[in-house]
# Entry
Amino acid sequence: MARFERLTIEEARTLSREQLLPRIEDEQQYWYQRMNRMEIRVGDDDAFKIFTQIMHIVIDPGRSVPDTDYWKKPLGELGEL
# Structure
């Protein structure tokens, strides 16, 4: 698996859903491989919570999609993170 940088809330606010989806897929693969191999360590829970928060907001913002800017605008501009 290729090395990646974990997403932060600050970074996610500057990226659009289009830009975030590949990053989320990579980080999701990372976390689930660690879980399946029982490699989760003390202290990983905060990073995993941040990741799942970002993932759920990107995937399901809890409202209908108003326009095409939904995929192109950074989450911070849409007020979703």
Remarks:
- DSSP finds five helices and no strands in the chain.
